[in-house]
Structure formats: C-alpha cells, structure tokens
Amino acid sequence: MSSVMVNGTRVETVRGDISCEQVDAVVNAANRALLGGGGVDGAIHRGAGPELLAECKALNGCDTGDAKMTRGYGLPAKHIIHTVGPVYSESGPNAARRLASCHRRSMEIAIEHGLKSVAFPAISCGVYGYPVDEAAHVAANTVVEFVTEHPGLELVRFVLFNDEALRAFSAQIERAAGAGGHTP
C-alpha cells in the first residue's frame, strides 16, 4: 500500500476487492452496454444485486472514455460510477487519451454529486488487455493532475487485484505526486 497527499486529497493504493470498498463511489470498469460482464464488472453487479441491472438498462449504455453513475444497492459504496475503458489492441494511439478520460470523467461526476471518496480498479487491465505499467502511468498522472486542479475529493483509492498491479500503481502514483504531493 502507498499513500500520498495531493492538494488535500489522499491518493492511495491497496490490494483487494473493489466491491467491498466503503467509499462514496466505486468505479466500475464496465462494457459499453453497462449490463454486467466478467472481472470487476461482474463482481460489482453480483454485489449490488438485480436492482443495478434494472437501473443500468435505463442508461442506454456508455461510450468509451465516458462515465455514468447509479446507486450502489447491495454494495457498501453508496454509488457506482460506470466507465468504459479502451480495448488496448483496438485503440492504437487513442488508448491513453481514452483511459485518461475514464478517470477524469469519473472524478468529475463524483465532484458534481458532492462525493468525497472514490475507489478505482485498474481500468482496462483485464480482458481489455491494457498493459498494467502503461495503465498505471496514465491513471496516476490523470488523477494527480485532476486533484491538483479540482479540490473537493478527500480520497482517491486504487483497489488492485494482484501484487503486480499494486506495485505498478503505487510506484506511478508516488512518481506523479512528486513535488506536488507528499507521503504522510
């Protein structure tokens, strides 16, 4: 686990199951239909229960790089912010831009709704094939830049599925925070 402070926001990494996080919102690495799937998406849908699927059907999907919010239902989190990451092999030079947009839009939605804490998974690092080190670099830089420019969030946590992802995200967050952040 690592933790840095950036402009009043704690940015941290932990290893765990995002569907168990007690934060205002968990971010779901969803598919464009928002109707459930495998990995993080499946775990969040299972934990939230059938009411989530009903609400997601009314959202009419989501574009890659965008995000939409629902209630958390059976999860400890009050809300779920669904974002659609890029499929790495199909995105070419736009992959980093689209992945950054997922993080930025999710935090914009959180702030718009007065939320204070958000937990992210390693978006696109599962079946979408985004290399963990590259995704960590994009996510860390985007989050640090965003919280530097937009105060309001108290906690941004990356909840990672294995030691490799935990190491990569921890290192990139500490590097991105650099002069702008400090380790508590």
Protein architecture, described:
This protein is α/β, with parallel strands linked by helices and 184 residues long. It has one domain: Leucine Aminopeptidase, subunit E, domain 1, CATH 3.40.220. It has six helices and eight strands; from the N terminus they run βββααββααβαβαβ. The chain has helices at 39-48, 50-57, 88-91, 95-112, 132-149, 163-177, and strands at residues 2-6, 9-15, 25-30, 67-71, 79-84, 117-120, 155-160, 181-182. An eight-stranded mixed beta sheet has the order 4-5-3-6-7-2-1-8, sandwiched between helices. β1 and β2 form a beta hairpin. The longest helix has 18 residues, at 95-112. The two termini are 12 Å apart.
Helices and strands in order:
Layout: E1 2-6, E2 9-15, E3 25-30, H1 39-48, H2 50-57, E4 67-71, E5 79-84, H3 88-91, H4 95-112, E6 117-120, H5 132-149, E7 155-160, H6 163-177, E8 181-182
Parallel strand pairs: 2-7, 3-5, 3-6, 6-7
Antiparallel strand pairs: 1-2, 1-8, 4-5
Helix pairs in contact: 4-5, 5-6
| Arithmetic mean pLDDT | 94
The global form is globular
Please state roughly what percent of the residues sit in beta strands, choosing from under 5%, 5-15%, 15-25%, 25-35%, 35-45% or over 45%.
15-25%
Beta-strand segment tally: 8
**SS summary, helix count:** 6
How large, in whole angstroms, is the Cα Rg?
15 Å
